[in-house]
Amino acid sequence: MHPPLDRPHPDCEDVVKALKECHLDSWKKFTGGCNSIKRALDNCFKLEKERLLKELTKDLPQERKEAEDIVKVAFGKRETFQEFLARDKDYQKAMQDKREKADRQ
User: How does residue 28 score in pLDDT terms, banded at 50, 70 and 90?
Assistant: First the structure.
């Protein structure tokens, strides 16, 4: 199943047009004559989605760091919970034991 073809797909415009044209011929549409175009469209949508996700998440690490800093200030803490866990020797030992146990299984 692919996303709606009516919304803009700048990366896949030519493939969408080719599929719509192929579907005008009912015989091809219902007997698999358009399957190769459909596969090309699926691949194009996959690449488009990957590109969009990269664009949307490119600043995520910086935004996450800023949010953690805001939380630190709001709660009057000097470090985040993750930073606390990173320096907690008991927690690190327990995690190492857990990884070793998982590797043995």
Answer: confident
